Amino acid sequence: MRNALFSALMLSSGLLLSSSSAFGDEGQWQPYQMPAIASQLADRGIEIPAKQLADLSQYPMNAVVGLGYCTASFVSPQGLVVTNHHCAYRAIQFNSKKQHNYLADGFLARSQDLEPSAGPNERLYITEAVTDVSAQVKKNIGEEPLQRFENIQSNRKALIKACESDDNYRCSVRSFHNGLEYYLIKQLIIRDVRLVYAPPESAGAFGGDIDNYEYPRHAADFTFLRAYVGKDGKPAAFAKDNVPYQPKSYLKINLDGVKAGDGVFVAGYPGSTSRYRLTSELAFASDWLYPTAASRYQQRIDTIEALGANDKEVKIKYAGTLAGMANRMKKYNGLLDGFKATDIVGIKQSREDDFRRWLTKNSDYQSYQAKFDQLESLLLEQRKLRQSRYYFDNAQSSALLSTANKLYRLAKERQKFDAEREEGYQERDMKMFTARLKRLDTSFDVHVDKTLWTQDLSAYLNQTNRVAALDNTLNEGNSNLDAKIEAMYTLTTLTDKQQRLAWMNADPAAFEASADPFIRLAVVLYDDNMQTEQQAKTLAGQLSKARPDYMQAMIAYYQANNWPVYPDANGTLRISYGMVDGYQSADALYKQPFTNLEGLAAKHTGIAPFNAPQKLLDAIKQQRYGRHKVDSVYQDPASWLCRLFSCAATPEQFNSVPVNFLSSVDTTGGNSGSPVFNGRGELVGLNFDSTYEAITKDWFFNPTITRAIHVDIRYVLWMMEEVDGANNLIDELTLVSN
After folding, report:
1. pLDDT averaged over the chain?
2. Residue partners of 692: CB distance under 8 A and separation at least 6
3. pLDDT level of residue 431 (50, 70, 90 thresholds)
């Protein structure tokens, strides 16, 4: 155990350094903002120039890539990519069969010719340019709400079309600060992604759902993929003669890792935060949205687990779906617990009240009080619409009905000029549309889908917001609900991949004449779905004026208080900084920043999810630490930290391999797989989770308890060298020391 003096030292230093202001290390910053916060980066020991971090064409930002739902990074000149195990789950599942279950056994390709496709839907996105297009998006959009929405969409699509003159690029126009600004994001798409190396799930997800969002952790949450391109060096679909992609740069990996108190930063694609949302929106999420969604997820999880308990094929097919739902459910429950523990609604309301007082005192913004009230009114209308359609939307959850809905919508959209079609149904979307139809078979089972859909239909029938078109279909004939659903799955042809693909070329008349029960239901429900979409678009048009007005005043209020101003996360490339640091999680309970191999072995029970692979346990028992053994993970007494606090005590001897560690960087969903850098921009870990107490940071950042959880790169390298013998991959990496 650490001695008391050094524990006190680390705790006090953590509180001081992470609470140097009311906001600590808060901020999911756009790269271009880096020069503006250069002094904060320097204070944290980030040595790499802020101007370099702002340049997406330079190291290390040009080595950071998106997966569309997670983050990854290039680590070799041969297109080798590292991300989280849970981010590559679909790729591992795609290649798992009864005869070789890579989820259970792990996978290692000893040579490149043995690397299988990660699946037709897998992509790597390399952000090359981010351009402010606010003026172009807002040009001539008008005031009428629905027309305003459509004009914004039209302007966005025109910018995207011009940007995508080269088919190898995917472009998007994203809203920042709730529509106050818009940026055009240009990304190179890698379409051939292959699985290279993944530890067994018993290591990659050690602790499972029980440990999810918890600490201490001991997860080997990493997987290696590889990017491939055509022989001409350009992105191409999977082909056996494709060659590894050669990235513009790849990350150096620091063998020495980091110690407590070291400055770190993370680059990645955080999905969504709500820190500028109104208190009423938080109250709605807390009182209705999160409890309702969590309850449904729990029911679906229980059902899938029960059906997969005695069917290995079902278990494999729904592994990714199950993991995703379990993660979201625990996050919702964590948010609800956090709201109760910290009274975040009260904190938000207090700040909102102060904001209103500031509006009345500031002559430039006094008129915004009425705009604020209008925004509240619109948000109330939006919440009512969401509640009224919640069960009806869920009643369309069958994978086959969802497919039929999309196919019929495609037929309708193809009657328009391409530029006028809804996003997702333009020609630019057809490759991914086709890939999704093909991939359905790998994550679909008739019995499971039927059972889950029946649950959602029953919930719909037991509430008052009913839709006549669906009710009439369910009431046709004399059969009961179970018999009707059974007949639909028996008679449909959508379970056949070729039949699904054939419908992509059908016109609306063919759908309207079809006898397929899911196609017929999609046709029947189309008008109601379009009516709901029209209502949502009209509200979005109204909010496209009200929210930016609110944000303009809110930003001025933040600046007046000298608070950090950065946009809410929206899936675009961001940088967060902080330091390696533990935290006081409860009375007399301090969470130390590092875990080790011995802690993993002590946690092992042999029963899932605490059933570490035997070869890993053997390596620990034999103390085969190799070059990754660390004497201490705390600052040397001669370091700046100890000079600051006059360390008289000798730091505890760690004498093990670090497994996971904590830092104060500001992350959220989508940051999974994000590279964790030391001050010189060298890879020292992979972000994979947050602590349970920190889940509420999506709404409110509390610097004293907000911590992200990372896989230590020394654990990754140790697994590769001492457990799995992935020496062919080690040889590809560029390893450096302090």
Report:
1. 93
2. 213, 214, 215, 334, 337, 338
3. very high
Nearest one of 384, 140, 116, 329 to 225, comparing CA atoms: 116
* Residue range 80-99, pLDDT digits in tens: 999 999 999 999 999 998 88
Tens digit of each residue's pLDDT (9 = 90 or more) over 653-706: 799 999 999 999 999 999 999 999 999 999 999 999 999 999 999 999 999 889
Contact in structure between 444 and 317 (CB atoms under 8 Å)? yes
CA dist., res. 596 & res. 658, Å (int)? 5
Query: Residue 107 CA to chain centroid, in angstroms?
Result: 24
Q: Which of 595, 560, 711, 735 is nearest to 222 (CA)?
A: 711
- What CA–CA distance (Å, rounded) separates 601 from 570? 39
| pLDDT score of 15 | 36
β-pairing, 735-736 with 253-254? parallel
**Which tokens hold the place of 179?**
């529509």
- Nearest in space to 691 (alpha carbons), one of 576, 590, 597: 590
Q: Which residue's structure tokens are 């989770």? A: 689
Enter the pTM of the model: 0.92
Residue owning tokens 């150096």: 252
418 is catalytic: no
| β-bridge partners, 132 | 183
What span, in angstroms and rounded, lies between the C-alpha atoms of 608 and 610? Answer: 5
Cβ–Cβ < 8 Å for 287, 345: no
What are the CA-CA distances from residue 449 to residues 29, 150, 257, 446, 497 (Å)? 41, 35, 45, 5, 16
**pLDDT for res 478:** 63
The residues spanned by each domain of the chain are 56-252, 280-361, 376-567
Catalytic residue among 25, 211, 221, 456: 221
Q: From CA 263, how far away is CA 680, in angstroms rounded?
A: 10
Residue 134 has pLDDT above 70, yes or no: yes
Residue 61, token pair as written in the block:
């930002």
Residue 472 phi/psi, 5° resolution? Answer: -65, -40
221 is catalytic: yes
Is the pLDDT confidence value at 6 over 70? no
Catalytic residue among 85, 86, 177, 628, which? 86
Q: How far apart are CA 182 and CA 83, in angstroms?
A: 29
Q: Which residue has the tokens 């230093």?
A: 13
| Angstrom distance (rounded) from CA 272 to CA 175 | 12
Query: DSSP readout, 396-459?
Result: T--HHHHHHHHHHHHHHHTTS-GGGSPTTSSGGGHHHHHHHHHHGGGG--HHHHHHHHHHHHHH
Query: Is 398 a catalytic site residue?
Result: no
* Helices and strands (DSSP H and E) totals, the chain: 28, 21
The active-site residue, picked from 73, 398, 672, 690, is: 672
- CA–CA distance from 375 to each of 371, 382, 545 (Å)? 6, 10, 9
